[in-house]
Amino acid sequence: MVTALTIICLLGGLFFFVVGTVGLIRLPDTFTRMHATTKCDTLGLGLVFLGLALHSGLTFSSAKLGLVVLFIWITNPTATHVIAKAVYDTQQQQGGVDTDV
Predict the structure, then answer these.
(1) For 24-35, how does the pLDDT look when each residue is reduced to its tens digit (9 = 90+)?
(2) Angle 19-36-6 (CA atoms, 0-180°, nearest 5)?
(3) Residue boundaries of the structural domains of the chain
(4) Whole-structure pTM value
(5) How far is residue 54's CA from residue 1's CA, in Å, rounded to a whole number?
(6) pLDDT single digits (tens) 17-61
(7) CA distance 100 to 54
(8) How far apart are CA 35 and CA 24, in angstroms?
(9) What is each CA distance from 1 to 18, 30, 70, in whole angstroms?
(10) Ordered alpha helix ranges (H), the chain
């Protein structure tokens, strides 16, 4: 049963990583690309690490994986917000932000 849950989590994480990559390639502007990659990478990482934690059982490695996930869940949205603000400010200085998208 644990093996099946591990495989489901790993495949789910892989799916979200692929969707984020496709979003990065296909979406038109910086803000939508960042949205796709941030959401999908955070969820994909959570699922992959959950699968790894299930595989290793309740060990010290699982606790370290949990701390890494917590760190990523805090830093990923924060870093994306800072990058989006920098792009927004740069676009305003260069003549305005395109709001037609």
Answers:
(1) 999 998 889 998
(2) 45
(3) 2-93
(4) 0.81
(5) 10
(6) 999 999 999 999 888 999 888 889 889 999 999 999 999 988 998
(7) 45
(8) 9
(9) 26, 42, 26
(10) 2-26, 30-56, 60-93
